[in-house]
Amino acid sequence: MTEELETLVARYRAGGGVEGLPARHFIGGEWSPSASGRTMESLDPGTGQPFHRFASGDAGDVDRAVRSADAALKGAWSRVSPAARGAVLARAAILIREAGPRLAFAETLDSGKPLQEAEGDVQGAARCFEYYSGLPDKLEGRTLPLGPDHLGYTSWEPIGVTAHIIPWNYPLSTFARGIAPALAAGCTVVARPAEQTPLTALMLAEILMQAGLPAGVLNVVTGTGVETGAPLVAHPLVRQVTFTGSTATGIEVMRAAARNVTSVLPELGGKSPVVVLHDTDLDAAVDGVIGAIFENAGQICSAGSRLVVERAVHADMLERLVARARAIRIGHGLRRPDMGPITSAEQRARIAAFVDGARARGLEIATGGHAVTDPATGLGWFYEPTIIDRVPVDDPIAQEEIFGPVLAVQVVEDAEEALAVANSTRFALVAGVYTRDFSAAHDLARRIDAGQVYINEYFAGGIALPFGGNRMSGFGREKGVDAVRTYMKLKSVAARVSSGR
Q1: How many domains does the chain have?
Q2: In CATH, what number is assigned to the domain containing residue 261?
Q3: 225 DSSP 8-state letter
Q4: Do 221 and 285 fall into the same domain?
């Protein structure tokens, strides 16, 4: 821990509060209050107490931000060369790392996640800008063989003003992975972070201005989904929407965007299976499953929330998982626990309702299953690491996204049944496979319906690996080179170059 971070943590834990956090919208390169003058509270999930206030915007603030982005798109940003765009992103990566202690501190206070996870998110955000900084001057078109009398070629152009709806579980990471390729492509951005976690998006906007981004290229408007998110995705000047969140909300976003024939990149819900076959390295599989479901208290779209395990190793694996789950230390994120709180009281109540329903239906709660508080303070919105054994395929625990630290264990007889169970939900975001059999692993990876499959390690790949889902988990891909095309439109040109004589 750096000296700066130690000071921030010590001051906050001593009741000294937090100084210098952003409290206004970021529009046109300037901090701007809401036109209405209204504000909202930021709540610390580890205590349930407010620690900050920020601007609560409305459609008028959104309109100012979108028009600022549109003006920048047609003005200063359009005159910046691709290589210079890349240089801005490269400088941003350096500045993000320099601001790392303060970004991680704010992310932990806003979202509740353990400080070490927030520090990892900061490094991931910096790496994201590093990765995309090398792409702007390599977005090449091609020539087309139209014959001796014609010249044909294609060119890629920025799609226009892009809107980014940022979720509350990974506010910094999700913001970075969306805006970095959009900026690399030459687009301008209006972002609306979740009202639970607005701070790091605002901080990152200021960092990008310091890196050389022209005013108006990146704008951040804070407020509720109804008052800021809805008017943003429906704005007629927005040409592309990147949305990360629930399937139900994603459907409404697509409906609103359709009125303006605006493209949408939706990364939606998941109920991802982790398939463990009988020949696997159980130590590695247990490590993978624990991380897949209990990182960020299970508040991850791609969490491995279903363990699909062959009967031959079920008992051994369950015993190990239960022991590991019971040993997990929970507590305020600034104390670097193994697992932090749930980000909001509403989300904790939703998790509890799912587990209480399972208990009422007679399902076996192998461990956990209760809402709790921080053992050190008696405060905060925590939920025990929970494992529910022998969950039927059609049970809500196996079918619905709980978005919390709840693992559903599903027992199968062989790899073929594992495949059927893995594909038994309406979601198809991510899957994991653990086995020593190389052929079996890749056969399952081919036949499991998921946008991304991990083999013998979960959450692998980083920014270079395209990410996104199928079916009710969405479509399109973020991350990787593929993501940049989301923010571009292809133009074809055909010209007569000879009279034909």
Answers
A1: 2
A2: 3.40.605.10
A3: I
A4: no
Residue 326 sits in the same domain as residue 421: yes
State the virtual CA torsion across 107, 109, 113, 118 in degrees, nearest 10: 30
Determine which of 245-249, 357-361, 424-428 has the lowest per-residue pLDDT on average.
245-249
Q: Tell me: do 240 and 304 sit in the same domain.
A: no
CB-CB contact of 364 with 389 (8 Å): yes
Residue 8 structure tokens: 């921030």
Q: Which of 176, 189, 312, 198 is nearest to 240 (CA)?
A: 189
325-359: pLDDT as tens digits: 999 999 999 999 999 999 999 999 999 999 999 99
Confidence (pLDDT) at 341: 98
| HSE value, Cβ hemisphere, 13 Å, CA-based, for 343 | 22
User: Would you say residue 314 has pLDDT above 80?
Assistant: yes
Q: Which sequence positions are flagged as catalytic?
A: 267, 301
Q: Which residues make Cβ contacts (< 8 Å) with residue 394, sequence separation at least 6? A: none
Question: How many angstroms separate the CA atoms of 346 and 337, rounded?
Answer: 22
Q: Is residue 143 situated within a structural domain?
A: yes
% of residues, the chain, pLDDT over 90? 95
Alpha helical stretches, state H, 185-246: 199-210, 230-233
Between CA 408 and CA 49 the distance in angstroms is 32
Residue 493 maps to a domain? no
Residue 246 domain-assigned (yes or no):
yes
Same domain, 355 and 223: no
Model pLDDT for residues 177-230, shown as the tens digit of each residue: 999 999 999 999 999 999 999 999 999 999 999 999 999 999 999 999 999 999
pLDDT band of 241, cuts 50, 70, 90: very high
Element (H, E) at 293: helix 282-294
Of 403, 324, 341, residue with least CA distance to 375 = 341
Q: Which amino acid is at 239?
A: R
Range of the domain at 66: 3-268+478-488
- What is the C-alpha to C-alpha distance for residues 218 and 128, in angstroms, rounded to an integer? 17
HSE-up of residue 238 (Cα within 13 Å, Cβ side)? 33
How far, rounded to the nearest angstrom, does the alpha carbon of residue 116 sit from its chain's CA centroid? 17
- What pLDDT, in 10s, does the model give residues 50-103? 999 999 999 999 999 999 999 999 999 999 999 999 999 999 999 999 999 999
Q: Verify that 402 and 329 share a domain, yes or no.
A: yes
Q: How many CA atoms lie within 13 A of 187 on its CB side?
A: 33
